[in-house]
Design brief:
GO terms for molecular function: 2 iron, 2 sulfur cluster binding; flavin adenine dinucleotide binding; metal ion binding; oxidoreductase activity. By secondary structure, the protein is an alpha/beta fold. The chain has five helices and twelve strands. It folds into two domains: 2-96, Translation factors (Elongation Factor Tu (Ef-tu), domain 3, Beta Barrel); 109-232, Rossmann fold (3-Layer(aba) Sandwich), CATH 3.40.50.80. It has a six-stranded antiparallel beta sheet. Strands 10-9-8-7-11-12 form a six-stranded parallel beta sheet, with helices on both faces.
């Protein structure tokens, strides 16, 4: 269903990464992890990619307004979005997608994500906190550096408050010697350090297309059944 929403606020949540908060239409419902298609009316800049993009809803369903988060690039759409004035209206169509948390809380979940792929999982985590769900979740979250990592503090806080949540951030290009956590890309060895029974969880993948493809192939090589892998790619990444 198509709606018109207004820009309420925007703020930086990591280096080069912006959160945009939009009004929520009356009666609009979605499940944590779903996405919408967003279109800018009369964009300030134009290119061959057009004025329509798909973005996950980053806010949990219980939130009053709707959040989207994106890296600000040099594309016409991203520049137009970044320069929208407060109160500007854009078109939203949706929700779409099946990257939603399974219902059986006795079956654990593993989230594999990188960069701006955190957005559907951040919505899920907010929903889990609100509903006090008991799913055991292990999140692997890869970024280049600490400064480029959106929602790091919020995820650490959620881990401290929820014994069923294990947060595994990893950095591929972090120069800070004080970081004593994981480094490098998510790989089989890293997953096995935190997941005892590889065949038990449902695996969820979101992130840049190259990452999602490599994660899928890795899990298949580890013996994970394809029915236990949920993945969606979004052009907005």
């Amino acid at each position: 269903m198509i709606y018109t929403v207004k820009l309420i606020s925007k703020r930086e949540v990591a280096k080069g990464t912006m959160l945009f908060e939009f009004s929520r239409p009356d009666g609009f419902e979605f499940r944590a992890g779903q996405f919408c298609e967003w279109k800018i009316f009369n964009p300030a800049y134009n290119d061959d990619e057009g004025s329509l993009r798909s973005f996950s809803i980053c806010s949990p369903p219980e939130e009053k307004n709707l959040w989207i988060v994106t890296r600000i690039r040099k594309s016409a759409f991203k520049r137009s979005l970044d320069e929208l004035p407060m109160g500007a209206e854009i078109q939203m169509d949706g929700p779409f997608g099946n990257l939603v948390l399974h219902g059986r809380d006795e079956k654990p979940a593993v989230f594999l994500t990188g960069g701006i792929g955190i957005t559907p999982f951040f919505s899920m985590i907010g929903d889990i906190a609100h509903k006090k769900l008991s799913h055991k979740i292990t999140m692997f979250y890869s970024n280049r550096t600490f400064g480029s990592t959106a929602f790091f503090d919020e995820l650490k806080s959620f881990q401290e408050e929820n014994k069923n949540f294990v947060f595994v951030p990893t950095f591929t290009d972090e120069a800070t010697s004080s970081w004593d956590g994981e480094r490098g890309f998510i790989d089989e060895a890293m997953i096995r350090r935190y997941v005892d029974n590889i065949a038990l969880p449902i695996y969820y993948i979101a992130g840049p297309p190259q990452m999602t493809s490599s994660m899928w192939q890795m899990l298949k090589g580890m013996g994970v059944h394809e029915d236990d892998i949920k993945m969606e790619e979004f052009p907005g990444y």
